[in-house]
Records
---
Amino acid sequence: MVVLQGLRKKLSPLNMVVWTQFLSAFSDNLNFFLVVGMVNRQEVDNPDGVVTYIQMAILCAYVLLAPLVGAFADKKAKSRVLLLGNALKSVGILLLLFGVPPVLCYFFVGIGAVVYSPGKYGILSELTKTEGELLRANAWVEGSTIFAILTGTIAGGLLAANSDLPAILVCLFIYLLSLTMTLLIPAKVGNPNIDYRKSAGQFFNDMSILFRKPRGKFSLLGTSAFWVTAAVLRIALIAWLPVNLGIEDTDEQSMIIGATAFGVVVSAVLIPKLVPEGKLYRSFFYGLVMVASVMAASFTHHVVLTVSLLFITGVMGGIFLIPLNTMLQEEGKTAIGSGRTIAVQNFVENAITVVGLGIYLILTEMDMSVNWAVIGMGCVLTLFLLYLSTQFGAIRATYSRKETT
């Protein structure tokens, strides 16, 4: 009886969401070094630029499909949305085996990712009842995601070091395993009355609603700042590690980049103590330290110091990101629906990230060194965060109203 109860707990819907997300995110990040290895073996003139364009192809899928996928996630059972997302990612990786150009393959992977994302976050609000439960669920999902980034990054570096095929096969297998685990999550009926045409037309109205709400605007801009930092840092490190530390092998690069992911895993433990329920906006201060750590790391020439700064970047970034995600999901669930909220979040985050990567590309193509390009992006992000600091009064007022109702 005790064994059955323990097994039932391990197979709970929330645990299955965590495991499904871990496996899918593991392959998502294995993908990155698969791309890096493929591009390096092709000996193109500007490998960092090619990798950036491939990453931008994935982000563009988010931007283009955002008006539809939120309504799709709210209309269908979210567990089946997760299943479809993993199936589409699997097809994108499978196309690599048939010689399809990587940019097209990864655009297809991006379509799978944009379908998957609203289901991943939307289902959490269905499985929890209070802000505290939702915060803990987010911490588990984000912690498992970042642990997947850590292990997937290292595995990708090792598998892609000498050949593309092992990384492709492992990536495909894990996507299919994640897909299988979604079958263990109950299929709660969505809203069958949702009309896709009307919902697509309403998308920008949804965005306007969230931006008019202080907590919605604060969290959307804050999470966007995090993902711009993460995207630029991951691309920049590929060029920066050979220049600053003389490290060119993808397996060694992946282990150093993994320090950031490990930091976010640690942040999941610290969040309940450092950012209390009802004061989630305090995570902003950790965002400032995150950007400062990235800028400082760009000028280091010692492995231990670089890894330490990247670890601090991960810890601060996690404490910055997870409470903001919780704030947005709580606000959006009552305002426009969880799936539509995540669709708006994907659009805003990825549109801003595409712009950020574009700025980074312009800086590097102007023959600016990678170190100064990172500093330039860091200055842009600092201005971003300083703007958020002007929103504190409105955020506090929102929480005060909640406490008196």
---
Amino acid sequence: MRNDDALLEKFVREIDPMEMSIRDEVLARFGALAIPPQALGRLVDPVARLAASQSTSSPVASPAACAVFVADHGIAHDDTVTPWPREVTRSVADLAARGRAACSAIARSVGADLAIIDVGIATGPTPDGVIDQRVRDGSGDLRNGGAITNDDVHAACDVGARIADTLIDAGARILTVGEIGIGNTTAAAALIAVLAHADPHLVTGRGSGIDDAALVRKRDVVSDLVARCRNRPIIEILSHVGALEVCALAGFMVGASRRRTPVVLDGVT
């Protein structure tokens, strides 16, 4: 068993809040420009938040780096929530490492370094060019109780925190994250519903484009999982959901926050 002083908890204690005085300074500077109000649209607030995160009134958004965490989900062993087999996870990770996936093209277009990290592929060895930090060979089926153990949650979070440190030590001033894992929008929907106290049906979407019948099944799976996760500690929620790559993402963002390095986030479907 792990001791209570896991790397993630240590990093959380070391996070300092954003310096809001710097944010206000940047906003005031924009306000003093000889331009019409709102002329820059939504650009002003992200720049001010970036400055507060970096503790400087002259923030920078380069060099940039992206970490993509990869893991398989036991829920995807049949076609209940997705028509895609788990083998697709490893195939997409392989393509990304060879520069042939969408994330690879986007990273190249903005000059960002790209790291692909295996935290739980279940269908074969880690592909060449992918960083092997595998915690276990995929998760169990989240319909059957805990899909991973509490120790697995900590281990995956620790991987994410270490990867953030590695990218920042290599010079990254701004980070972004991604994930690859067939079935992971089911896990994500459950987490959103539990943590945001949201209606599971409203936050459960079509993911990779499932049909109406699969969407009904997916929403039922998410609703059942949410009912089991209500009022549990966060580590237990993550173990029931079993998303190794989501745990790694959480650790990554905590590690970045500790180093005062902003993380750009995308959404789920």
---
Amino acid sequence: MQMIIANHVNTYLSENTAQQAAKFWLSLYDESSGGFRFARHQPATLMATAYCVLGLELIQSISELSSRQRDHIVDFLMKGSHADGSFKDSLFNKADIVSKKHELDYFKEETTTFCQQALDALSAPPPPARFYSDNRNTVIGITQYLEAFSWENAWLDSNPVMFLLSQLCHDRERHGDESLSAVIDTALDWLDQNQSPTTGLWKGPYEVSLTNAMAATFHFTFFYFYRSRPINYAERIIDSCLSLQETHGLFSGNAVGQTCLDYDAIDLLAKASLLTRYRSVDVRDAMNKASDALLTLSNDDGGFVNCKQKIRHFNDRKHRLLRKVGLRRLVPASTRVKAEGDYTVCWKLLSCTASESNAFSTWFRMVSLYLTQIGARSSTMKPVPNFRSLPFLGYHTETTFL
């Protein structure tokens, strides 16, 4: 059954917002290489190219690329491909990894997944199907793969799981390997067993924060909708996500914006609201508030940023205590200060200052803006979003189980 979107008086996403975002992404195109940059001062990379391509697809602006440019972009992406179906950027250097939590295999799987998705968005022939040296693409092997993670940091460990499931779905769709359906379903069965009936979110062997559990859960939900499986405890997911929204409208703690966390929570709310009408007014109000906040994160160049401001509390200890016991309304006075430092997607060539427009934040902010309108039951989306057709970041379906 298709979701019915009710009229809403406010228009939060104008066509001009999308047009300006397209202009920004296109400004990052590097004619000499055929790829895109993460930010204007960075070289073209496979990941940044995928961000821009997927962003242009979302707002139906792929057509703004000439056929020659599209061919060059496909060539640029395919230069990073290997016979086993994996991808590696020629500029990748282990010394440029910013995060100490990420291993080399993480970047290989991440880059592979993004390149697969970008090539699909460009209507290019699929890269080779993945070959795995272990048996993670089998019914028995995928359970072993999932149980091999420590899950001490569910937010982190859920990412490679998302990459694997996305690649399996890619090979099922693009290479016609129907045997992978059972593998994907086995993974979802396992994930069901690690969901908390109290919060609706991930519950592994270690206690993690509600924010951490929310981010982990988000990484799995694409595949439930892809396989037409309702997500359990949708009402508890709504409760948890709403409880994480800050007074500034986003889901990023003291920072007024965190590219991933904001998208994670908004997407979960949008998906859960397709499964139940529970707290629909609260969800609508939260989405409208988030939309207002997201729009403040754009720059004059049309791009979006990770964060422009942070909240400084005059009594941090009291603030933390009140938040912990659920008394946010009693949090002492605070002020906003300029966000300092760099923003990075774990790799030096995917970094910029916190308030600088970048390809990744612009893509995620645009997806999030569209999802706020879906969660608010708005009918004013212009242009109509072209969400990813393969389950991954940017994927959304309006199919509901109500």
